[in-house]
Design a protein that fits this description.
The chain is of the alpha/beta class. About 55% of the residues lie in helices and about 10% in strands. It is built from 20 helices and seven strands. Helix 5 crosses helix 6, helix 9 packs antiparallel against helix 12 and helix 14 runs antiparallel to helix 15.
Amino acid sequence: MNRQIIVAIETTGYEPHDEIIELACVEVVDGLPTGHEFHQYIRPNIIISESAIRVHGITTGALQGKPQFGDPAVVDGFLRFVGDSSVIAFQTSYVRGYVEAALAVAGRAGQGPKHWTDAQRLAENLFPDADNSIDGLAKRFGISMARGEHSGALINANIGCMIYIELADRFDWKDALSEISQADLGVQFTAAGEFITFASSEDTRDLSRSEDPSVIFLFHEVVRKVAALSPLLERFDNQAGWVGLSSATKRLQVSLGLNPEDVPRRLSQIYSLVLELGSFVEMDRSVQTDQGATVDPLPHEVRRPLIDLIRTAAPWLRLFPTIRELDDEAGAFLIDISLVEPAREVFDSSRVELLVAPEDIEALQGLVEAAHRPGLQGRKATVRSVLSARNLTVAAISLFASGMWSTFVDDSILFKKATAVFLESEPQILRLFEDASEDIKLSVSELIREIREHQR
């Protein structure tokens, strides 16, 4: 079931300090209105401005005896009705701003809808240079605007619902998604047989650099130091705070191999693993100075070779042009830490459904763990893990956007796996694309709706 909620509001005025006085939600399921609604008039703490009254006709006196936003009938009812569904609004920044401010005042900051789509911006993509106001779109689609002298949230939500359905019907998600690309700062993926796997990197600049004698020397130094460190870490497999340290070192050892000529094809995996190990070094520094830490610092005989490995591997990797550019951008790139959890859930679902090969999914889950550790490497791991989850989704999207999926989904193991992940992780996938353009957000929603319809 692809559930979306159309939200509309009326307010005491149009300044940041103003408050919501009417809140309306209309449910759409699989592209059709269900008739289910949530509607409340709300008593504000301030006087309604004359300019706002001229728009919606609601006076301060008319709201006496109505609940305030923080009352359970309003805030709990709203949150229950929306749930984890995506929200559609006209002028989303206006509606979302007042909703989130009201939730914060009610002590519910961060509990509101996570995935918003601006129907007006979507209309601007479809009809540039046209009147894309709610009135203009209603006229374009022949939708009745019989709302009398004044506006109203419930009326606007129902009109907005009809407009959104018209917009979605005119939108070709395959065209929009066929052009979507993977982010450079995340792991790159490609479909291979029954799995989506890490794509190999063979930039000619990296291939040329790998032949440099100094790069080859440092490669052998990294290989030697990893081999020496690995046996020292086996006892940390089940030690609080350090789970994953031994595993990451072993995976790095495998990814490095013994031939420096093979490194350019595996630079992405190697970089991710060095980030993960670097995050353990930064965590060790943190717990050494934190008297309240619940994790024991690493013993000296482990700390020293681990730091030595990072001090050799990091500058060696930065000798490769693509990694140097990637590392610089990752260090400066800011991303919402709350997106790490949706990334984790997408990776978990991909592991369960075997969409991604086990050795690759282990590396991705290691990045997610590294993202929770303090310091610069943890911040870089945050960027890489979130964008890798998005890239994995984009790689799966490319299968469906190819136009072949409706033919092969019943027979192809890979299509079946991708379908299962999309259906299991719909809220998380939508969250990962919350900062994408309106056409991409709608396209992802429409893709999931079509997948659900095909499954019936």
